Amino acid sequence: MLQILLKSVGLFGIILDSLLRTPLFPGLLWGILTVVGIKMKKPGALFCILASLENFNRCVLTQISRILLLLGTFTHGIINKMLTPYTSNWIGLCQMMLGLMPILALITWWENPLPLCSDHSPILIKDLEVPSKPHRFQFKNYWTNMPGYWDILLNVFLERANGNPLIDFCDKLKCFKTLLKKKECSSSLKIETSLKELTSIQHDILSSLDVDPNNESLNASLKDLNFKIADLSNSWSSWIIQRGKAKWLTRGEDDLNFLYSKIRGRKNLKGIINSTVISNPNGHADIIQHFHNLYNPTPAGQPDLNCFPVGDILPPHLRHILIGPVTVNDIKHDVFSGCSNSSPGPDGFNFHFYKTGWHIIGPHLCRAIQSFSLKGYITRSVKNTAIALIPKSNHAESILDFRPISLCNTLYKIITKILAARLKHIMPQIINTSQAGFINKRISTDNVILGSEILGFFKRCGRSNYMCAKLDIKKAFDSVSREFILLRLAQKGIPQEFIGWIKSCIMDVNFSICLDGALEGFIPSSSGLRQGCPLSPYLFCFAMDAFSNLLDSSLDGDVFEPFKIGDFKISHLLYADDVLVFGKANVNNCNTLTNLLSKFASSSGLVVNTHKSTLIMHPNTPNSNDICAALNIPQSHTKITYLGIPISIKKPSIIDFSPLIDVISNKLSGWKAKLLSFAGRLQFLRYTIWNTIAYWIRGAIIPKSCCKQIDKLASRFLYSGDANAKKLHLISWRNTYKPKVAGGLGVPSLNAIRFANSCSIISRMYNFPSLLANWFFHNYFSPWKPAGCLDSPMWKQICDTALKVKRNFAFKITVGSPISLMWDHWCWGDCLSSLPHVSGLKDLFPLNSNISVIMDGTVWQIPSFISDPILSRILSILIHQDGAVLYWNNGKIGRYSDFLSEFYSNDTVVGWHKVLWHKRAALRFSVFGWLSLVGGLKTADVLIKRCISVNPICCLCYSNVENVSHLYFECDYTHAIIAKLIPALNTFLLRPNLHQIVDFLADGNFILLGKRTFYPLLLWCTVYYIWRERNSRKFGNKFCSSTTTHHLIIKAVSQKIKSWKDGDIYKDILKRMH
Predict the structure, then answer these.
(1) Cα-flanking dihedrals φ and ψ of residue 922, to 5°?
(2) How far is the CA of 902 from the CAs of 740, 895, 926, in angstroms?
(3) How far is the C-alpha of 962 from the C-alpha of 971, rounded, in Å?
(4) Chain centre to alpha carbon of residue 485
(5) SS3 content of the chain, % helix, strand, coil (to 5)
(6) What is the pLDDT of residues 676-732, one digit of tens each?
(7) Does 973 have pLDDT greater than 80?
(8) Distance CA 405, CA 391 (A)
(9) 308: closest CA among 481, 140, 504, 463?
(10) DSSP 8-state symbol, 130
(11) Mean pLDDT for the stretch of residues 958-972
(12) What span is annotated as the signal peptide, if there is one (predicted)?
């Protein structure tokens, strides 16, 4: 790419005149048109500032005229008439030249072929006179290791506090920020430049040492230089990791190439934003006005809560949870639970600043927050919020195609996290059971399952007279009325003191917009909640709770008829603002729903967007068009996507799961994922891909063909780095799926996830009341009752799992427990239906009766005709007043990990898993240890067995056939390295191989003499670097001596133990190994 940095656009004429006389002309001119931007053809292309392009246009038009004359296509007169109108209209010129330039390029390239290069941006022109706005301050985590940082922090916060502690704390932060920005080494650009300069000097010294290797002065200089480069490299890596924000990339695995790609991706998104802004004649002003209108709607008057039923109110004995004093432990917990790499707010400070400086700023911070709890006052600067614009797609062209995300100040987050933690405890008691979002013990996928079950009932009952409406609320979080929320809090019995704290946090908030790294505008707001504030999800639930109670029991006579089957009825399901409404499918009921929605909108500000809403009815429903018209929804459907998972009246087909396959395939085939190492790909699978799959499994039955395709994509991605490539890998996917103790990588199989999910549903059914549990008990009674042919696929899967784990679950009888009298094994591990001499009970009570029919409070009421053996067994069981009902093996409520362990309980435990996967294991090294132990390395002997022609001789010692046993550590080269690192191996009579060393490290006596985690880390680091040296010799023709490889291992281990609390002990051991 040619880069031309112009002091003035006028100079471009001279340069362009010479460039366009060369064979590079077509690429240069076409590149200019591509970069400057053809919006219609290149969505998201960069646009130049139009006012500064007049001289530039004249230069380009002159050269275009010349080439047209040379081609003999046009005369002077025609050219002047055609191009003169575009002298000041660059966009019009670009659009006109779109059709012309391919022809010119084709002709000229045909005569003078262009060298291989991209047709995108072969020339880049920058006008240095265009002023750049200063970027907003952002705290960099590596600053804590910067010379003088702690002196500045200590001097600022040692000053005497004045006035309000919160205001004083904010003033100290401003002062500290000002002093910090004056430091010369605070810029990341300077670190990058210094690192390049030192690397260049290092290269020169190494060249000199090649000539004079015994020069003491050069060796000393090289040693000092290496320490400086190591420090700068750590700072630069810290900054890249902080910017990359890949939370799943943990446990020491540093895939910097992947993080670089994420940062470049965000730069591309920033370019999309800039192009959208600059293509608009008014630019920033229109965007600021858009958000001003969004956050300041026309007031609709004071909300009227008299028409809203209250529902459940806060019990008096829970009031102290909300208004208790704020303690130092509360503040410290919220500070240290925050993510160090999270994006900061307008003030630029992140959680890492508060964590590392806690011993200095902690007392000041605690006084500031406790002052807020006493006075209920918070300054505007603390509440100020930055808006980051995230494109919803790669072809965003207007501001409506961006998703605004609020970036709150960290100080504000700490305060609101304390309030949110208190709200979290009381939410289950006062929020309607239909709301599954952000409420403890309520699961989003339960709503998906219940919605799917109800729609399946529509099909089973044939000519159904019920409907399901999926309602889309327009800009829900941005438009909700704050006054309505505060009034609703008071209506639910929240103490006025706590409401005052909430009001201080959510009222009088100002916004600025992040554009090209700078903050633009200062927008006041009168409505909405910030998506990024810890309080917002809980406060929004209070707003939607008013809708729930209005729909269930209106006070104005408009009664909505819900879906009802027997004693079970349900009107709606909620997950935050995702609404599913179930009810009678008739015009009157739809008119009632419309009136209730209008009433709710007038008070809360939450308006339903009917154009994005969907209606589901059975195809045979009469008056379907009239029902659609009553709800103002265009037409009815038979399937919808709810919370990302398809649900429908009919059985889902394979094509309904194509979005899941597409998402996984795109993530695994993307060029970013190809930059990951083996350990990085494992983390990517475990924490990104598998979380997506687990979510779908929790809410739907994924077809077997889709599961096979997912397994194929995942195995190819892990072992080949590309989901579309078919390469040799030596370990079956079934063995990879195993837990670590059984010799696998700890990634659960899809069957294991499905099994654990079914166990989890069974446990939650009995222990945590919910709408889904009520549905299952009403329709199916017990998971240990044989499933019927008409039962749903999800319930059949649950029943199959229940039979497999029957011996693992045990019941505890409580008052009001949902235990089935006949089907559940509550009688000392047996169900009554399988015991003899209980036929009288079967005749007296219905087969599906609840156990409460033979209970009177905490006393058994057993009919007298029951035989003595059965009677004595029942009477020996204690009835508890309350508590959990269903327990797992260990006498506690089963956890997801317990269920996964049960699935793999029959697998054989390997002896080396504790040495390989110890608590301080570095995944980057341990995965290669795993490959070497299970036969996953492609050594010469393995390839030859598969008829692949390779040199069988070991490339490290050139004396023996290469195999895993020889490579680790019978080879002269590798044994010399491992013997220096673990001197105790010299006591062996013969050279030990890898398995023997692992057994040696696992021996208890040796562990007492050595270190339980240190020597395994050394071992697996050695395995990694030996394999890397082997590949470097085979494929890169680069050779390192055993001493050099030994030093590389010592350096790598030194980096890993820096974060260990007892790392100084091991540093001394490493020094002795040099």
Answers:
(1) -95, 115
(2) 14, 11, 25
(3) 9
(4) 29
(5) 55, 10, 35
(6) 889 888 988 988 899 999 999 999 999 999 999 999 999 999 998 888 888 888 999
(7) yes
(8) 11
(9) 481
(10) S
(11) 94
(12) none
